[in-house]
Amino acid sequence: MKLEGKIALVTGGSRGIGFATCKKLASEGATIIITDICDEEKAAPAIKELEEMGAKAKFYKSDVSNFESAQETVNAVIKDFGGLDILVNNAGIVRDMLMIKMTEADFDAVINVNLKGTYNMMKATYKHFMKQRSGRIISLASVVGIMGNAGQANYSASKAGIIGLTKTVAKELGGRNVTVNAIAPGYIATDMTDKLSDKAKEVMSSGIPMKRAGSPEDVANAICFLASDDASYITGEVLRVDGGMAM
Question: Is 167 labeled as ligand-binding?
Answer without folding.
Answer: no
